Amino acid sequence: MASQAVSSGPTPAAPGGGVQLPPTAEQLQTAFDHGIWYLLSLWPALHVACQNGWGGPDSNEKKDWFAGAVSDLFAQRPETDFEDLVVFLLQVVQDEFDLNVEDDTEEEVARSILVLKKRLFEDGDVSALRELEQRWKNRGQMKTDVQVEDREIEGDEDEWNGFEDEDVDMQDAVPNLASQPKKEKPQPEVDDDGFTKVVGRRNR
C-alpha cells in the first residue's frame, strides 16, 4: 500500500543529540501490520474462538493469517471504509472460525484499525502501535463475560479497549496473505437474560 506523507512539524532530537528522522514508509507499514495483529488479539470473540479451537487445530495460525489478510485488504483496496471493513471482519470469522459475532464488537475492531491507519500514515505517529502493544501485554488484567450460545460458559477473556498512552517496543510482524470475499452482516440476538450472544459453532 502506498503510504501517505507524514505530517510536518518539529523533528524531535534523538538520544545523543542527533536528529531523529521521521519513520519510513516501510516502518509505518510494519507498524500497521503489528497493530492489526494486536487489535485482533484483543478482540474477545476471536480470542474465545482461538482458545477453543473453533478454527481447527491451527486456530492461532489462522489469526496470524487474518491480520495479514486485513493488511492486504487495504493494500489492494485503499478506499476500504468502515462498513467494508466490518463486513470483511465478520465474513472471515464466520468462514475461518465458525463464529457468528452478535455483540457488535467487530465495529470497535474496525474503528480502531482505521484510527491506527490514520495515526500511522497521516500523522506518522508510531506511538499508536506502542499503546496497542501495552494494551495487549496488560490483557491478563482485564476481564469480560463472553456469552457462548448452547455452551453456558463465561470466559475470563480480554476486555475490548481502544488506545491508551503507553510506550513499549514493537513485536514481530504477522505475515501478509490474501484477503477473503465479503458476506452480509448478521443481526445481533439478545437472549432472555439480556445478554447479546456470541455464537460459536464447532469446526466443520
Q: Between the first and last Cα atoms, what is the distance in angstroms? A: 34 Å
Helix content bin: 40-55%
The low-confidence runs, each spanning 5 or more residues with pLDDT under 50, are 1-14, 150-158, 164-186, 200-204
Number of domains: 1
What value does the Rg take, in angstroms?
18 Å
Q: Give the overall form.
A: globular
InterPro entries: Pre-rRNA_process_TSR2
Biased composition (Low complexity): 1-11
Region (Disordered): 1-22, 143-204
Pfam families: WGG
Detailed description of the structure:
- The model is unreliable at about 1-15, about 150-160, about 165-185 and about 200-204 (pLDDT under 50).
- It is built from six helices and two strands, in the order ααααβααβ.
- Helix 3 runs antiparallel to helix 4.
- The protein has one domain.
- The protein has a two-stranded antiparallel ribbon.
- Helix content is about 45%, strand content about 5%.
- It has about 200 residues and is mainly alpha-helical.
Tag the structure with descriptive keywords.
204 residues, mainly alpha, 2 strands, 3% strand, globular, disordered N terminus, disordered C terminus, rRNA processing, Pre-rRNA_process_TSR2, Pre-rRNA-processing protein TSR2-domain-containing protein
SSE inventory with pairings:
Blueprint: H1 25-41, H2 44-51, H3 59-76, H4 82-97, E1 99-101, H5 105-121, H6 127-137, E2 198-200
Antiparallel strand pairs: 1-2
Helix pairs in contact: 1-3, 1-5, 1-6, 3-4, 4-5
